[in-house]
Amino acid sequence: MVSIEKPQEQALEPLIYDISVAGRIGVNLPNCDVPESELPDGLVRDELNLPEVSELQVVRHFLKLSQLNHAIDKGFYPLGSCTMKYNPKVNEDMARLAGYASLHPSVDDESAQGSLALMYQLQEWLAEISGFEATSLAPAAGAQGEFAGILMIRKYHLERGDTQRTTILVPNSSHGTNPATVSMAGFKALELPSDAKGNVDVEALQKVCDEQGDTIAGMMITVPSTLGLFEEPILEVIDIVHKVGGLMYMDGANMNALMGIVKPGEVGFDVMHYNLHKTFSTPHGGGGPGSGPVGVNDKLKPYLPGPIVDIIEEETDEEPPLYGLVMPEKSIGRLKAFHGNFGMHIRAYAYIRAYGGSGLRDVTRHAVLNANYIRAQLMDTYKVPYPRYCGHEFVLEGHFDDVDDIHALDISKRLMDYGIHPPTNYFPLIVPEALLIEPTETEGKEELDNFIDVMKKIAAEARSNPELLKNAPHVAPTRRLDEKKAAKDLILCCSPALPAAGD
Ligand SMILES: *Cc1c(COP(=O)(O)O)cnc(C)c1O
User: Fold this and answer.
1) I need a surface site. Which of 74, 79, 152, 223 has the fewest CB within 10 A?
2) What's the CA gap between 240 and 227, in Å, rounded?
3) What is the pTM assigned to this prediction?
């Protein structure tokens, strides 16, 4: 374990321009096998000032750059809400198979039967995992799945002439994308409080439904909630909303706590999105793109975003089934060019096949066990606001009664010195100094124990040498940044110092 007692300044990597030496070359072009000819004027730009470096210098430069950022392949990444599980490399091999990777998205359906069969099977498996009637793989992210779901709810009510249903209920523990989705879809978000146990406040819900039931289009709720807690009264909540004619949207980003154990469709939800880049191990963040399929019950099936894959001709003794892309009857339409992020469908398919049904259940069990293990081990050192069994993640408070001026951010930055990615900070909003910790199932006990040791060590440092936390990180490629400036004043490309005039 690293122990940094004294802040050190780190030298930044030189820009590739700084290592440039005139005349050095990193490519070896094959001999020209066509007659040489002059390039038209203007095609060759002398002023580009490209770095002149050897192949080895380029390799080293980019390898070093790739290591400046933290990644799941480098170390523990307990970023709550994001399910930063290991992305198995076999998924990458599958996604690179030429039959998939080289297929043009405009090819006719008959020439794409293998890819369509894969998408069809994935639709079926996702429906099975969550107990829904049908799924669409079109949405490109969780937030886009939410948008699709709320647009489906909207169309459902409008077709029934229920134009006065303009409100969607959202608990105050919800993910920020939920109320954002609600207003993007043209609804009003009405926030519900949570009770002392972290569940949605059922009395408040009942009151709203009694007073304005006919204006409620539905409710969006995350299960387990963003506090990592299973919504104990969920059956009652679903019942109350259904009774006044509203539909239930489940934010399925936290399926890593339910897969193989609870089927949201069977519990009574009408629609849900999946995050393939969370639960189903497809790459995440900079390694994306994402994929946020939606599952629906019978009521919403005709409205699914398209295209979806269906069987056009049933299988016979001689022939396999013929798959085709179709637009559902009353579809809310397309969300994206072509068919969603197909590369992610391949990876999620490979993941589900590798684990199988009982394997997926074990994924959930181990994710939940890992989170509860850390929670139990840290409960005496940190405040845990809702001391009950958690799902696949839990929140603790990143401050101490007997230490002034230590915040969640200081603890997070100090974790970086120990080679650990910080947990999610200041979310959910209803917990002061929140640190949302999600270890995932892919970490072994040694890694969990190391994290627990480090968290305890940081709590001790907060008392013995708080400056160590306040000035962290000490060994990261950069020291603590002005986060506001970093967000507002992004510099996204490096450029050589311009030659001075007259050079
Ligand atoms: C990640 C997440 C989302 C949004 O998913 P994206 O793929 O990032 O758009 C929505 N809700 C919850 C609870 C999440 O954790």
Assistant:
1) 74
2) 22
3) 0.90
